[in-house]
Write a structure and sequence with these properties.
The structure is a homodimer. Helices cover 68% and strands 0% of the residues of chain A. Chain A is mainly alpha-helical. Chains A and B meet through helix 6, helix 8 and helix 9 of A and helix 6, helix 8 and helix 9 of B. Chain A binds a DNA duplex through helix 2 and helix 3.
DNA sequence: CTATTTCTAGACGTGACGTCTCGAATGAGA
DNA sequence: TCTCATTCGAGACGTCACGTCTAGAAATAG
């Protein structure tokens, strides 16, 4: 789904092959790690030709980005729940649940790493993943602002930088994931209850 | 300085060659980018043999990690300045200044990316860079706690995750660096003034 | 039936990898 | 002064994934 337009003539793209390639990429990443993941290996495991992979995805990272959307549930709830704190809590729990999904953390690590090496992929990663997640949280903050439910001085962009910064830093630099205490601490902080009991 | 022990006999390690290699690696990274940085290229630019590089550093990322310490001023002030807010401000300004140093951002990006690919290097990166920076900020928070100068519910570890999360997320996922407004916002947040004017 | 596109399969030249060998230079201990 | 361990620059070597390419079969719309 990354390359090309759909022509009206000729053989149609095989959905079965597409799924086989995405699954092979996802599984191989958990088995051998992203650095040892090769296009040739993906094609071999999927029973596909190399050219088929190269035709539809520019890099192995792009394959993995699409595989992530296939394997993990990337939906984020942005339903109006009445209060900023409640919606923030929901958002943080959803994010923690995503990270707990098997194979997601190594894949996210690999994608962010690849985004540092390849500027073109960085933009695709931003458009296809990062900004979507940001948009969800920013919606929550902006709705709180409209309700008058939001701490002063807290812009949507800054809140997103803080929350995603915390999540990504945990994934990339430490080995710990978000737990219940972290969620509580973030809620307390963004609600402005950090100074008193 | 990463490999080997110092024997008592034989020719001594050439400090001049060591500096030439570190300088070549740093400059080449800014010129061609980390992915196109090769050990062979480093050796060639430094006028050194490949074996000389391989003898002292296990990967090109380790060369760059040491080059960073050589090129940029990694000192962090942790002097007691009387108040949490003042020391936090100093820390944030020092961090912003480091990022503004020529070539530092691309190098940091590359090191964090490599840390995701190579678990062994990740530990060296943590020990040689990440935890040192964390320790400085944690000292500031703990000193504030001892003074009774610190917001309740703010642990040193969580504060570090938040601040470094913000900084790294900005570097890795967006293109923006910390500016004065960001520093103000972080100080306001961590001091517990986010809810009122 | 024809034109077009996708499919699997694999050959091809390229380039960096990490190891190895070579002979010269260096320097501490005998 | 001699000896010998160690580092030095230089580069040869086989290996492996890269991305491109060709070939021929299969599928599909006009």
């Amino acid at each position: 789904m990354t390359g090309a337009t759909t022509p009206t003539r000729g053989r149609k793209r095989s959905e079965q092959t597409r799924l086989a390639i995405l699954t092979a990429a996802y599984e191989l990443t958990t088995e051998v790690g992203f650095p040892d993941l090769t296009i040739e290996g993906i094609a071999a495991r999927a029973g596909a030709g190399k050219q088929t992979v190269y035709r539809w995805w520019p890099t192995k990272a792009d394959v993995l980005l699409e595989a992530l959307a296939l394997k993990a549930d990337l939906k984020v709830s942005i339903a109006d729940q009445g209060s900023f704190d409640t919606e923030l809590d929901t958002f943080l729990r959803d994010s923690a649940a995503l990270m707990a999904f098997p194979g997601v953390v190594p894949v996210l690590r690999s994608l962010m790493a690849e985004a540092q090496r390849d500027a073109d992929f960085r933009h695709r990663f931003q458009d296809g993943f990062l900004t979507k997640r940001r948009a969800a949280l920013e919606t929550v903050v902006e709705r709180a602002a409209a309700r008058g439910d939001k701490p002063a001085h807290l812009t949507a962009a800054f809140a997103a930088d803080l929350v995603f910064g915390l999540i990504w830093y945990r994934v990339l630099a430490t080995e710990r994931l978000l737990d219940q205490d972290d969620i509580t601490a973030v809620r307390r902080l963004l609600n402005g209850h950090s100074g008193e009991e």
